[in-house]
Amino acid sequence: MAKVIGFAENVPYTARQAVRIIVTNQKEEIVIVFAQNGNYYKLPGGCIEGDEDHRVAVEREATRATSCTVTMEGECMASTEEWRDGLHQTSYCYRGRLMKDNGIPESKEDRLIDGLMHKWIALDDALTKMKASHPTSLLGRYIKERDLYFLETFARARDSL
Q: 138-159 vs 123-132: helix axis angle to the nearest 10?
């Protein structure tokens, strides 16, 4: 069952599906993206295009966000259903492994506008940073709630092994 974020109002919504990925490297660190201009952390991911396969979408979006080559592992580990600003978004989160770190992502306009930077850190540090962040926008608050839920789900699964 998906975690619901926000609530449906009696307004038209645009439906969208998205993917997120929690990528680990050989040191068992995960990659997170910091949106400096919004003061929040997020997981790599983005929109699923049409009826695109989730694996294709998540690997593409992770590369766009981090410039890393990653591979998705296993099935969807958690999902959210978000209602915000005329958008009804379902996000699916997967686990993944780093195959190759290709360096700094290309300087795309949206990365520059949002001040996006990625870094590899321990899972517990990522959880601490996400919890302590204070997003400056409504979008940032939704992203924080969604991705914190995904990270906490990932951490619980790891701790139960």
A: 150
Long-range contact pairs involving 102-108 (C-beta distance under 8 Å, separation at least 24): 102/63, 102/67, 102/68, 102/69, 103/67, 104/67, 105/64, 105/65, 105/66, 105/67, 106/67, 108/64
The per-residue pLDDT for 159 is 83
Q: What is the pLDDT of residues 86-132, one digit of tens each?
A: 999 999 999 999 999 887 655 455 544 457 888 999 999 999 999 99
Q: What is the pTM of this model?
A: 0.91
Residue 160: pLDDT band (50, 70, 90) is confident
